[in-house]
């Protein structure tokens, strides 16, 4: 057993502010050695994502106690039996949806989430089953097969993608969720052509990554939309051509052939549908609460030949797509660093959740 420090969510649905109620406890946790097909990683950096907050506030029901964090990168410290293609000392990005590579869903090349991978994520276990985390002999659940808000993690081989040493830890971490989800939606589903416009509704880490990825294309116009003017200013800083509040975008009659919704709220999806041009596609990547509903006129979809497409994890295959994003970053066309709004310590995690809930952060990066 290795004693590690990690951010363990003890209670779901605690009252705000979390800085006071402190639902997440930064504490000592025992980490079992990697089993067959697994590896141990020393975490270097982890991003705080809205999907972490969704566990804290109960929008996404998961078992507790759970060691949170699903967007992280680190250095391989130990490999279990059967992990022959990774070496100790190599930098890896965590991919929060492991792919078994054998189920019917895996055969769709990213269009549908791996079935055993999704089941393990819901159960709070690793892909191979069970937990490697415990406290006082009692199991602690894994978050999406990663549990990256910790000094170390044991993960399944299918939960990591190696990256070259020149990719800094903060960049590598963000590739695993924000970039793969927002950027993947643009690359894999939107696939903009020169002269087209991409509109992005919701400018958190995922939305901003969609903006950056759209801007990495030649001759693509990018429209960024958010309720908060600070986010619009930030998007302008990244190079977005036009920025609007949702109301202003509707009033201005903005229409785009590719619209990415990255909020996970029914109102944002309605806005995204409204802004979609005839023949265009509304791509939804946000994760709303399970009981959320929208009201739309089906006629518009038929008469205007529009479509609404759901995209989990940007319809990405991490092992295929992370190297594509690394190449864009290395060419200077995808400044992933610019998504980091602050660097914090693990002990700041409850305050970080407040900042996320208030919408005043793009990506807060925990460094170790
Ligand atoms: Zn995430
Ligand atoms: Zn699978």
TrEMBL record:
Cofactor entry: Zn(2+)
Domain Enoyl reductase (ER): 19-362
Keyword Metal-binding tagged: yes
Family, per entry: Belongs to the zinc-containing alcohol dehydrogenase family.
Signal peptide from the UniProt entry: none
Domain of life: Bacteria
SUPFAM superfamilies per the UniProt record, alphabetical: GroES-like, NAD(P)-binding Rossmann-fold domains
Keywords: Metal-binding, Oxidoreductase, Zinc
Listed Pfam families: ADH_N, ADH_zinc_N
Source organism per UniProt: Mycobacterium kyorinense
Single GO MF annotation: zinc ion binding
Protein name from the UniProt record: Alcohol dehydrogenase
